[in-house]
Amino acid sequence: MSEKLNRLKEILGEVSDLNHAGSVLSWDQQVNMPPGGGEARGQHLATLGKISHEKSTSDEVGKLLDDLKREFDGVDSDDAALVRVAARNYDKATRVPSEFVSEQAVVTTAAFDAWVAAKGRSDFSTFQPHLEKVIDLMRKYVEFFPPSDHPYDALLDDYEPGMKTAEVQEIFGKLRPQQVKLIKAIKSARPIKDDFLHKTYAEKKVWDFSEVIISKFGYDFGRGRQDKAAHPFETSFSVNDVRITNRYEPSNPLATLFSGMHEAGHAMYEQGINPAYERTPLANGVSSAVHESQSRMWENLVGRSLPFWEHFFPELKKTFPTQLDGVSAKSFYKAINKVEPSFIRVNADEATYNLHIMLRLELEIGMLEGSLAIKDLPEIWNTKMQDYLGITPPDDAHGVLQDIHWSAGLFGYFPTYALGNLISAQLWEKINRDIRDLDEQIHKGKFDALLAWLRAKIHVHGHKFDPQDLVQNVAGSKIDASAYVRYLNKKYGDIYGL
Ligand code: MG
Predict the structure, then answer these.
(1) How far is the CA of 233 from the centre of ligand 1 (A)?
(2) What's the CA-to-centroid distance between 132 and ligand 1, angstroms?
(3) Model confidence band, residue 352 (pLDDT cutoffs 50, 70, 90)
(4) Burial level of 40, CB count in 10 A (0-12/13-18/19+)?
(5) Disulfide-capable partner of 288 in 159, 193, 297, 421 (CB 3.0 to 4.6 Å)?
(6) The model's pTM
(7) How many CB atoms lie within 10 A of CB 155?
(8) Catalytic one among 234, 263, 270, 350?
């Protein structure tokens, strides 16, 4: 192996250590830190981030990458992939000047505070000037990159490497009418009873049940842990230390089970990455959408399926005999899959979720292009909610102000949530062709063949392939809506007798 490659790996290994140390601090901030620690923690993270940025964007790294790109041109190997991904990260990190990064921090900090206040008062007008500044920043950011077919491409690329805006628009364009049609059909079907889901379920028992489920999935507690935090998330410091958080909401007590499955899905991906990639840029999931395909698969395709609950429901009922008195596995299954158009994205069911995303993508593109005036945003939001979901938010807090993303300058992220759903269904069709008795196995509470499949086809590769290539190689086509549409129509056709 070349000396230059060794030197690059040495530097990137240190960068990885610094970034993981920062992740440990962020995890601690959300899990353990007393409220008074916030300011100091901000400084710790800023210092680590600065050192990491300096190290990863140094002239030495640039020179090494230039030489190694030539050496590995046309080569297909892990090292070639490492050089390609490192060069890409380097290019992105060096295009954006540090003055911009500081300006962005100032603007989004103020925008976040304004958003919290505006949401509290349900008054978009006080957030509007801040959002206008954020949009100006996004336009500036796009300018740092070579011209593309669409300015949104540069934003999307940060989360979904290589994906184009036009591709997403085409996929969503096919998906939207299908989902709208399904929801209309469900609306005229007989409503599902789910009152028993909202009784009182003791937190400790729900939490323990969640750990039973994810252990059976194959989440390795010897290399992970589940802690309580305000928001469920997954974070990885190494393939041998991948942690998740969860929460308990008394108004929706069993949601803990599903968010545990979701985050464990993310975590099993990270636990399954080739250990040889440790301390390199290949030791991550490949993109936000592929990551989300893993979490959604365990949460929805497995965890909201009938075979799954035919296995787990008797145990759940034994744990909560009064709450689930008179409830069958089948009626429990129907209740956890109840479709109801609602205002808030994070509470949306599988049949309506993607429509919340499509609405946001259209608005993000409109704002960036300038074809949409920021002051008109609440009105356009409400009109689209009516068109897609048949409901109109009562106020801005339940509409345009509900998500944190825009105040934080996170543009380009939303579509990956929906793309993840689509990929999960594409993979699921392939898995079911490869593991013919998968339903039977899930019915018995066996998940080892499923996890082994995901490990071999997706997890082990880490960031080695571009997401569209990975999906193409594994599922046989690029990201596409048809498998998800088949899945939704079959599932909800059965549940609602359509
Ligand atoms: Mg997720």
Answers:
(1) 7
(2) 28
(3) very high
(4) exposed
(5) 159
(6) 0.96
(7) 24
(8) 263
